[in-house]
Specification:
By secondary structure, the chain is an all-alpha fold. The longest helix is centred in the middle third of the chain and has 25 residues. The chain is elongated and about 50 Å long. The chain starts with a helix and ends with a helix.
């Protein structure tokens, strides 16, 4: 399990230099954040909101699922890092870190 946990942590949290899957996940999350900001802005336009209600609804649902899965994977795998050792204390340390709170 330790190997899988370490690989997941490196993929979703701290990819080593040149680790392509980690770079893709990080890039994908950043793109999804940027698109969410744009969609949030477009959704405030009443005519767009009315015309594309289903799109906005399903995009937001998709985004919540992706962000939730990513966060849970970070939380589960964080104990593979020396910084977050300890099943409970390590996860609490991650949970209350500035980047996790943001």
């Amino acid at each position: 399990m330790g190997g899988l946990k370490k690989r997941v942590y490196e993929t979703v949290a701290e990819p080593p230099e040149g680790y392509r899957p980690g770079e893709l996940v990080t890039g994908g999350i950043l793109v999804l954040i940027a698109v969410n900001v744009l969609v949030g802005v477009f959704e405030t336009v009443k005519s767009l909101h009315t015309a594309y209600f289903n799109f906005f609804y399903y995009f937001e649902a998709f985004s919540v699922i992706v962000f939730t899965v990513e966060y849970l994977l970070r939380l589960w795998s964080c104990t593979a890092s020396e910084r977050y050792q300890g099943a409970i204390c390590g996860r609490l340390r991650l949970t209350f870190s500035p980047m996790a709170l943001i």
